[in-house]
Amino acid sequence: MELTGCAPALYAPVLEILGQMGCRVEPAGDTVRISRFGRLHGAGRVFTGAYPALATDAAPLLAAAMLCADSESSIEDVIFERRFGCAEGFCRLGAQAETAGRVLTIAPGGHLCGTVVEAPDLRGGAALVLAGLAARGTTVITHPAHIDRGYAGFTEILAGLGAQIRRESAPGNGSVKKTSAKNKFVLQSGQKDDTIQLYKYSIELFLCEKRRFTITYPMEDKSYGTHARRRNG
């Protein structure tokens, strides 16, 4: 993946931890290229702190990456007391995650499977979207308004990276409402049976939630020209 328009020095702690976990990180000017070969490794114990340390806002997103590691990781947030509201959603997806005070610990061995989870807050909701992309099956994120407060064009950027993600809405009476092309992103898996199951599952869930993200595994290799883009090879 290549990310442009943001100086890597501003989020250097995140890049350093991803490097320790097994990613290849190549910063250059206002661009950074990140690639991974093989499974991620655990990060051990990491801490948030005031700049230039690891930002508290980045902790849940980094935790989502740790869900795919082959050994234990933990993050202690010394800035924000209730940072890891996403832990419950991680567990619902099948992760081995637990919180103790300000510490989130993630053990290996979890198998992520799609389910319905609620975005607890801005950063935690974004972290659940990332976890949903790594889960097998369909993941539905309800209450995405939390995520919208901080991430403009979130679905577009992820779709540009190859994610099968779309935004859906329904009126208050529970009936299905089709969203405009601007707000709805559906990337087909190429398997008709999977697509039919996805639609049936989504329509059924409209009865209890007004707005949410729907994420489907696996991802296709496509590029839509966003600032963050998937690199060939």
UniProtKB/TrEMBL annotation:
Look up the record and name the pathway of this protein.
Cell wall biogenesis; peptidoglycan biosynthesis
Q: Where is the Enolpyruvate transferase domain?
A: 13-158
Subcellular location(s): the record lists: Cytoplasm
One Pfam family recorded for the sequence: EPSP_synthase
Record-linked SUPFAM superfamilies: EPT/RTPC-like
Q: What is its main location?
A: cytoplasm
Which principal EC class is assigned to this enzyme? transferase
List its EC numbers: 2.5.1.7
**What UniProt keywords apply to this chain's record, in alphabetical order?**
Cell cycle, Cell division, Cell shape, Cell wall biogenesis/degradation, Cytoplasm, Peptidoglycan synthesis, Transferase
Reaction catalysed by this chain? phosphoenolpyruvate + UDP-N-acetyl-alpha-D-glucosamine = UDP-N-acetyl-3-O-(1-carboxyvinyl)-alpha-D-glucosamine + phosphate
GO biological-process terms attached to the record: cell division; cell wall organization; peptidoglycan biosynthetic process; regulation of cell shape
Q: Does the keyword Cell division apply?
A: yes
Question: What would you give as a GO molecular function for this chain, any one?
Answer: UDP-N-acetylglucosamine 1-carboxyvinyltransferase activity
**Superkingdom of the organism of origin:** Bacteria
Q: Name one GO cellular component term.
A: cytoplasm
Q: Give the family this protein belongs to, as stated in its UniProt record.
A: Belongs to the EPSP synthase family. MurA subfamily.
Tell me the protein's name.
Answer: UDP-N-acetylglucosamine 1-carboxyvinyltransferase
- Organism of origin is Faecalibacterium duncaniae (strain DSM 17677 / JCM 31915 / A2-165) (Faecalibacterium prausnitzii)
